[in-house]
């Protein structure tokens, strides 16, 4: 029987199905084997794996019980809730898998402090703002904050990645959550700038058109020196692994770093904005 190729980057449901197939096959199970352990038909299992049928909470719990993933960070129930709450854009689930294994992470952000640098209070304020606008539900906000905390925790490992961050000046001047929240966030940025595996730079407004990117950009260098790029618009995200497409983005990032303020001067700017916080 021919096995069709799955594209985990196509959607969160596709990523769910591809991971389900991978874990099932790693155990040497057929779709019939998994069906028998979950009280579903093999046709249903096939439909979920191939993205023809969305996963449900009951199905996800059954899969977790069969695969021994109940209550773990890798549980399908957790992934289902992320899909249901709409927290992950296209390409982002796959990007996070790469991020958790990257040897080097390069980030550029506009408007908001990059997620990996946000304090819990800042992240909560951002999520609460989306709730107030009616963009997400309180449950979605809770999952979003929890998911970010797990991403941050994944950076703490035996060989922590080198993280290079360029923030547009707007990230500092966009007040989020009030004075106390911003004060704690500024302290967090200054603390991070002192760590040996972090480099923090500010891209000042003055560089104008010389700024390389007009949208946030994430670039990951893996242990085999391959580079993965991820970019988001308001509606969707895109993961790019093709070297020919990624290398120009890497060049643009290097150009951005050259235009941005050095780390010491960037910390000075953070302190200046911090003192001016109302």
Query: What pattern of helices and strands is seen along the backbone?
Result: HHHHHHEHHEHHEEEEHH
How many helices? The count is 12
Given helix and strand content, the structural type is alpha/beta
Query: What's the CATH first level of the largest domain?
Result: Alpha Beta
Task: Record the SSE blueprint.
Blueprint: H1 12-26, H2 31-38, H3 42-49, H4 57-67, H5 76-84, H6 92-99, E1 104-109, H7 120-132, H8 138-153, E2 162-168, H9 170-173, H10 179-193, E3 198-203, E4 217-221, E5 227-232, E6 237-240, H11 243-259, H12 263-275
Parallel strand pairs: 1-2, 2-3
Antiparallel strand pairs: 1-4, 4-5, 5-6
Helix pairs in contact: 1-5, 2-3, 4-5, 7-8, 10-12
Structure description:
The chain has 278 residues and is of the alpha/beta class. It folds into two domains: 73 residues, 434 Repressor (Amino-terminal Domain), CATH 1.10.260.40; 184 residues, Endonuclease, Chain A, CATH 3.30.870. It is 49% helix and 12% strand. The chain is built from twelve helices and six strands. A six-stranded mixed sheet has the order 3-2-1-4-5-6, sandwiched between helices. Helix 1 packs antiparallel against helix 5, helix 7 packs antiparallel against helix 8 and helix 10 packs antiparallel against helix 12. The N and C termini lie far apart (67 Å). The mean pLDDT is 90.
